[in-house]
Write a structure and sequence with these properties.
Helix content: 40-55%
Number of helices: 9
Order of helices and strands: EHEHEHEHEHEEHEHHEEH
Number of strands: 10
Strand content: 5-15%
């Protein structure tokens, strides 16, 4: 299903001394595994951005079992709330004058139609608008870091092969109209938007490397909303059980985090800004909408207009 390269997360991640890293959704699944691997390579600081303090602290303690005194700090963040995102960015910028690596990992999947606190469809609001605002508020720090000698500033956006499920036209901007689309169409457009955002960001900010990655299909807690009946519960159980034999399905978060970790730490000349990668390190065109520059620009302008309406 994927034509990737070998990347051993236990051996191929370079020394990260001096680097400051922020990972959203780092309290579980792919995010926690990503932080675990990065923490083992001597970064200056890792901010684990997540909603629930107890889960974040539990994740930190788990990492510390293998990496004692890992420099990880919980950064309270709810991507479904612009107020929370503003607070998180203010906390971060009050503590750190640099940011070398932003991994926009968090997300929701397969949720029923609903609106965030700021009136965006849940999956689009959390996965797209939330990360777009966080990135915007951290941009001055990212740009400042990129000006330093020998800097290598990157943003890794978690997308998905699920972007192929986006509705006709790619992105439906009318948030109320999205109620008429299935859960998976809405998820597809959110993941497509992650790819388009990374692509347009790369064009506008060439000093920062911006990419989108598909981690593979991993049975993380993102699949919990799917288990609403016996048939869907069985489907998830079957996929977990048969993961080693199914193409494109990863058996563990360790395997699933490899593509993000590659994009975040591989030699800079091997990672092309604006690209969408499938596991591991395979440059993919994605769907026809995923490389539509006109749609990418339209999405960027929509996000910009919406954030301005909210005072950002």
């Amino acid at each position: 299903m994927f034509r990737g390269k070998s990347f051993d997360t236990s051996k191929d991640i370079p020394d990260l001394s001096g680097k400051v890293i922020l990972v959203t959704g780092g309290n579980a699944g792919l995010g926690q595994e990503t932080i675990f691997k990065l923490a083992s390579q001597n970064p200056a600081k890792i901010y684990l951005a997540a909603r629930t303090a107890s889960r974040a602290q539990a994740a930190i303690k788990e990492v510390e079992k293998t990496v004692p005194n890992a420099p990880i700090e919980h950064l309270p963040l709810d991507l479904a709330s612009f107020a929370s995102i503003r607070s998180a960015a203010e906390t971060f910028t009050s503590e750190s004058t640099r940011l070398d690596l932003l991994i926009n990992n968090a997300g929701v999947m397969g949720t029923p139609y609903g609106l965030t606190k700021d009136r965006y469809e849940d999956q689009f609001g959390t996965n797209v608008m939330g990360h777009a605002l966080l990135t915007r508020l951290l941009l001055p720090t990212l740009l400042k870091t990129a000006e330093e000698p020998n800097s290598d500033v990157r943003i890794v956006n978690l997308a998905s092969i699920g972007h192929h499920m986006a509705p006709s036209g790619g992105v439906i901007f009318d948030q109320a109209a999205l109620e008429n689309y299935s859960t998976w169409r809405r998820y597809g457009q959110a993941k497509l938007s992650n790819i388009l955002f990374a692509r347009e960001f790369a064009c506008r900010y060439p000093t920062i490397k911006s990419v989108a990655v598909h981690p593979g299909i991993i049975m993380t807690n993102l699949y919990t909303p799917m288990q609403s009946n016996i048939l869907s519960t069985f489907a998830v159980w079957f996929a977990r059980t048969m993961a080693p034999l199914l193409p494109g399905v990863m058996a563990s978060t360790k395997e699933g985090a490899a593509n993000s970790l590659w994009a975040a730490t591989a030699p800079t000349e091997k990672v092309k800004s604006g690209q969408y990668y499938t596991p591991v390190a395979y440059a993919s065109n994605g769907s026809r909408y995923a490389h539509d520059d006109g749609l990418a620009k339209k999405l960027w302008e929509y996000i910009d207009t919406e954030l301005q309406k909210h005072g950002f």
